[in-house]
Amino acid sequence: MTARTVVVTGGASGIGRAIAAAFRAEGDRVAVLDRTPGPGGIAVDVSDEDSVRAAFSLVRKELGTVDVLVNSAGLLTESPVEDMDLALWNETIAVDLTGVFLCCREVLKPMRAQRWGRVVNVSSQLGLKGGTGLGHYSAAKAGVLGFTKAVALEVAADNVLVNAIAPGPIETPLVDGISEAWKVAKRAELPLGRFGTPEEVAPAAVLLASDPGGNLFVGQTLGPNSGDVMP
Ligand SMILES: NC(=O)c1ccc[n+]([C@@H]2O[C@H](COP(=O)([O-])OP(=O)(O)OC[C@H]3O[C@@H](n4cnc5c(N)ncnc54)[C@H](O)[C@@H]3O)[C@@H](O)[C@H]2O)c1
After folding, report:
1. Count of C-beta atoms within a 10 Å radius of residue 130
2. Which of 75, 128, 226 to mutate to test ligand 1, by most ligand atoms within 8 A of the CB atom?
3. What is the number of the ligand 1 atom nearest to the C-alpha of 173?
4. How far is ligand 1, taken at its centre, from the CA of residue 157, in Å?
5. What is the pLDDT of residues 122-167, one digit of tens each?
6. Ligand 1: which residue has its CA nearest to atom 17?
7. Which residues line ligand 1 (CB under 6 A)?
8. Among the listed residues 206, 227, 173, 229, the one whose alpha carbon sits nearest the alpha carbon of residue 4
9. Cα–Cα distance, 200 to 130 (Å, whole number)
10. What is the pLDDT of residues 191-205, one digit of tens each?
11. Which of 37, 109, 152, 180 is the most buried (most CB within 10 A)?
12. At a CB cut-off of 8 Å and minimum separation 6, what does 87 contact?
């Protein structure tokens, strides 16, 4: 296949960074959009409509129509629901759910016009099973799965395929902040007995974006999760 234009939000760190590297290894042109983008990346706040518009407009100018969008930008904080500030809830929904909507909205029409496109939304297994202290995050990630199915239905007929990945615990800066006691207990629960690495998640995104390998996935969720959830 010829080189495609791939946008990876949250591509400066963790899972997004590994996904960006995996698409580069496929020979694709990759634009990294991130709140802290690093060299060569494009600054964006995915929760801000104007910022998202400006970033995608820059990508279209420099790299043309986006063929593949991977939404990996996200943040995780912890609070029991009964003590949760509305601001914390709103921030999580804005970044982890509304950000996915805003970025998808930028790419769908041009993808439909060219009758080829792939969107991969990074959800979480916590969107399927929930997590203590993670009511806001679990709600946002479950929302991503519902949104993924709805958009998939809207655009599949034009060969634009929208799917999700719901990773289990993966060794990235996102989980670094969680207590060591939680990590030890969590590892013990996992059938594989260990967390994953970003490099073990990235090939799932490459598969969903591939042609013909991804051609029959519509509104699906792949779960690289060390066996923690078997939907
Ligand atoms: N690490 C895990 O265990 C795990 C498990 C399941 C799902 N996820 C999801 O995977 C995705 C990537 O997480 P990660 O573990 O690689 O974390 P990470 O912190 O390493 O990477 C997240 C990236 O998103 C960027 N980002 C955060 N807020 C942003 C915003 N408003 N606008 C633009 N960019 C923003 C950060 O700058 C960072 O580069 C997230 O959506 C996360 O919820 C992670």
Report:
1. 14
2. 75
3. 20
4. 30
5. 999 999 999 999 999 999 999 999 999 999 999 999 999 999 999 9
6. 174
7. 9-10, 12-16, 34-36, 44-47, 72-76, 95, 122, 124, 167, 169-170, 172-175
8. 206
9. 23
10. 999 999 999 999 999
11. 152
12. none
Encode pLDDT of 37-67 as tens digits.
999 999 999 999 999 999 999 999 999 999 9
137 has catalytic annotation: yes
Q: Cβ distance 186 to 175 under 8 Å?
A: no
Looking up tokens 């969903």, which residue turns up?
Answer: 208
User: Crossing angle for the helix pair 135-155 and 99-114, nearest 10 degrees?
Assistant: 10
Q: Is the pLDDT of residue 1 over 70?
A: no
Triad 9, 128, 93: Cα angle to 5°: 45
Question: For atom 1 of ligand 1, which residue has the closest CA?
Answer: 170
pLDDT digits (tens, 9 = 90+) for 173-223: 998 878 888 899 999 999 999 999 999 999 999 999 999 999 999 999 999
Torsion of CA 154, 231, 95, 90, to 10 degrees: 110
Domains of the chain: 5-222 (3.40.50.720)
CA of 213 to the centre of ligand 1 (A): 26
Q: State in Å: Cα 10 to ligand 1 middle.
A: 6
Question: Of these residues, 23, 56, 89, 137, which one is catalytic?
Answer: 137
